[in-house]
């Protein structure tokens, strides 16, 4: 049987080897052209990373493809190809909520590709500070979860910081219960980021009600604690389990099986239109009758769709709020620009956080 199998596989493997030889030659040709592009960008002081351009490349290739590769496969492959080309031009660093093994790190790699240098930070505040101080070109921060809503600290820092949003990624979140032993013998506490504890509270109540729940700075920090202390269980993802060598006691313990977290990429460079964009802004209105109608009227007038509306206390007065809004379209689109101009005339405060390619 082995002889028959090998006789059938051999010619197919030879064809794959021949195709691989063509692919590596073409990839090196592509990389050589990318280096030429880098020289032109350097001459004009243009940014190495252009998220709108990379999205257009991936979309074009997906439209060209007749299969059997799915769109997700094409996106994953070409993101790594483009990341490798970027690395030939310049090493790019991205700050993220650490330590190693967090969902923020996973989001960084899925968005930028693995040919990027990560800078783990102990807090979301430190991610912003690192980018503002040029310790990293970009930052990756969580902004909202499908089950628990907005990440308040990120919203507050977006208001205070001069950094802008240049991209977004919606990451499926699958939580696991991890311990050093791979079981719950002797375990008395479960540690995780507050959002993770909230996302798993029903499962924990039903399946591990005896465990004390302790909030820590990140799920990866909880994993690091669990390695050193056999009385601690951590809630974290597969990346943390692998990195810290923890045993998986239970998988997918999140209460919502479709749990997702939206991450945004922050930096100093503006992002051009990609054709499938989103604009984020913060506004406030005067405390007077009809104020909210005046705020939303320019959007309806110019046909701009609102995809997100979140309020946060302004902390400067009694019952005053900032409103975080996501709009379809790029600030350079004529209809969006017209709506923003009119909105700026009617709002007491307006800050555009950025226009960037929408997550598909």
What does this structure look like?
- The chain is globular, with a radius of gyration of 24 Å.
- It starts with a helix and ends with a strand.
- The protein has 360 residues and is α/β, with parallel strands linked by helices.
- It has helices at 2-43, 51-64, 71-89, 103-112, 124-132, 152-160, 194-199, 201-207, 219-228, 238-244, 291-301, 334-346; strands spanning 93-97, 117-121, 138-145, 149-150, 164-172, 176-179, 189-192, 212-215, 232-236, 247-250, 260-267, 277-284, 306-313, 321-328, 349-357.
- The model has no long low-confidence stretch (mean pLDDT 92).
- Strands 1, 2, 3, 4, 5 and 11 form a 6-stranded mixed β-sheet that branches.
- Helix 2 packs antiparallel against helix 3 and helix 11 runs antiparallel to helix 12 (334-346).
- It has 12 helices and 15 strands.
- Among the domains are: 93-173 and 260-267, D-Maltodextrin-Binding Protein, domain 2 (3-Layer(aba) Sandwich), CATH 3.40.190; 176-250, D-Maltodextrin-Binding Protein, domain 2 (3-Layer(aba) Sandwich), CATH 3.40.190.10; 277-357, ACT domain (Alpha-Beta Plaits, 2-Layer Sandwich), CATH 3.30.70.
- Keywords: Amino-acid biosynthesis, Aromatic amino acid biosynthesis, Cytoplasm, Isomerase, Lyase, Multifunctional enzyme, Phenylalanine biosynthesis.
- One of its GO terms (cellular component) is cytoplasm.
- Residues 280-357 form the ACT domain.
């Amino acid at each position: 049987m082995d002889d028959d199998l090998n006789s059938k596989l051999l010619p197919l493997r030879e064809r794959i080897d021949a195709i691989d030889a063509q692919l590596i030659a073409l990839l090196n040709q592509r990389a050589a052209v990318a280096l030429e592009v880098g020289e032109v960008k350097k001459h004009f002081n243009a940014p190495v990373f252009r998220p709108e351009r990379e999205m257009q490349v991936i979309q074009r290739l997906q439209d060209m493809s007749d299969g059997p590769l799915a769109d997700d496969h094409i996106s994953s492959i070409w993101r790594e190809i483009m990341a490798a080309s970027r690395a030939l031009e310049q090493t790019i660093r991205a700050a993220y909520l650490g330590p190693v093994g967090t969902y923020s790190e996973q989001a960084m790699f899925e968005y930028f590709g693995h040919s990027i240098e990560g800078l783990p930070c102990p807090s979301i505040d430190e991610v912003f500070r690192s980018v503002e101080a040029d310790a990293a070109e970009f930052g990756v921060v969580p902004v909202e979860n499908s089950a628990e809503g907005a990440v308040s600290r990120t919203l507050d820092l977006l208001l205070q910081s001069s950094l802008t949003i240049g991209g977004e990624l919606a990451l499926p979140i699958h939580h696991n219960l991890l311990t050093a032993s791979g079981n719950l013998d002797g375990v008395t506490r479960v540690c995780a980021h507050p959002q993770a504890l909230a996302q798993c509270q029903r499962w924990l109540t039903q399946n591990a009600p005896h465990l004390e729940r302790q909030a820590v700075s990140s799920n990866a920090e909880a994993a690091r604690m669990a390695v050193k202390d056999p009385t601690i269980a951590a809630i974290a993802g597969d990346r943390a389990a692998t990195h810290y060598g923890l045993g998986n006691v239970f998988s997918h313990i999140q209460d919502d099986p479709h749990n997702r977290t939206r991450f945004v990429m922050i930096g100093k460079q503006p992002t051009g239109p990609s054709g499938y964009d989103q604009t984020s802004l913060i506004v406030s209105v005067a405390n007077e009758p009809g104020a909210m109608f005046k705020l939303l009227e320019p959007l309806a007038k110019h046909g701009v769709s609102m995809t997100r509306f979140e309020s946060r206390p302004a902390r400067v007065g009694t019952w005053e709020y900032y409103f975080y809004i996501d709009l379809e379209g790029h600030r350079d689109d004529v209809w969006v620009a017209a709506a923003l101009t009119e909105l700026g005339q009617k709002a007491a405060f307006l800050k555009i956080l950025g226009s960037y390619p929408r997550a598909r």
